[in-house]
Amino acid sequence: MIAYPIARPTRLTLEAFARQAGLHPQLVQQFVALGLVDADRDAAGELWFRPAALVTVARVQRLRAGLSLNYAAIGLVLDLLDRIEELEATSRRSGSRPWT
Amino acid sequence: MARDYYELLGISRNASADEVQQAYRKLARRHHPDVNKNPDAEEKFKEVNEAYQVLKDPETRRRYDRFGPNFRQIPEGYEEMAGAGRGAGGRGFRQAGGRAGGSPYGAEWEFHDSGIDLEDLFGGMFGARGAGGPIPGADQEAELTLTVEDAYRGGRRSITLAGPAGPRSYEVNIPPGVADGQRIRLAGQGGRARGDASAGDLYLVVRIAPHPRYRLRGRDIYVDLPVTPWEAALGGSIPVETPSGQGTVRVPPGSSTGRRLRLRGQGMPNATGTPGDLHAEVRVMVPPTLNERERELFSELGKVSTFDPRRSGT
What we know:
heterodimer; A: mainly alpha; globular; B: alpha+beta; Helix Hairpins; HSP40/DNAj peptide-binding domain; 3 domains; 4-stranded mixed sheet; 3-stranded mixed sheet; 10 helices
């Protein structure tokens, strides 16, 4: 018989998310408002986060601390970095190297 | 470890404050761990920050110029004691002790007071700005180039990468039939965190090097099969090199160049499914020079044969 593990909750409340990110909930709320971190808003207006968004928060913090960027600039940088990654992945898959 | 700060920033010793700043900004952008996923970028980023922390302040820069990399061990008052009087306990030295924000100095420094802790080490890495809290480390990526044969066989392989404390080696297990672009995750081996957050992961991205004989398309391997004109015409069992060793292909009679013969399951192995196929592509080769007898036979064949590949419908 196969044992099935208990599924971990796939979304976090603002408080739980902020605690895991080591940030004040208000700052996390600000990140969402600035479009840096994705969150879902339920009918009651509460924010829900996917655990994967913790990676994004860490990126935001590193970019701010390391390059003295403000949050608006970080939004742009994140978008551009994601786009570059996407382009690099497609150019590797198709086009430039169909053969190895 | 302690490279010259001017050399690190790529500037001359009499560079202006603007030039210092400009060089630093450029390098910081290029080596930031979120922009550059190379494992040695993080170390470079930290060094550049260290250099800038010292050279941006005219006072510490002057002391660095004068005393070299060990300038922090020279008491602040040293020059003043020797020369004109000045207030004791200046800024630079207290900063080296490491309590106030963002001391950049790595572990290679020997401090008179033992104020250094991890926070300082990583605080320095991200400059003085990011106030306080822990920040998880960035993920890193390194390429792992394999030959077709290595990818076919898999097995253990040791790789060495630049790390925060000199080169680090990893033994990685490569599954047989690993594909180009697949990633091997080494948890916690990526960028370092600030504070007690978790370190990033290191991903080894498999790149399969171009091979003189084998071409890969997915799990299928394509290989040229050079044959003589008579082998191509009469057919036969032709030996072929495969990544697993010597194999044999049955060439049917009348095989022209371009005919593909498939060896089912002889391509790249697949741990979770069916392996790829090996496609041997016939290439008819003629002798570059003919001896007398060969010439005779070919001429005779030319007279006797009615085959004309340029006429349609043949």
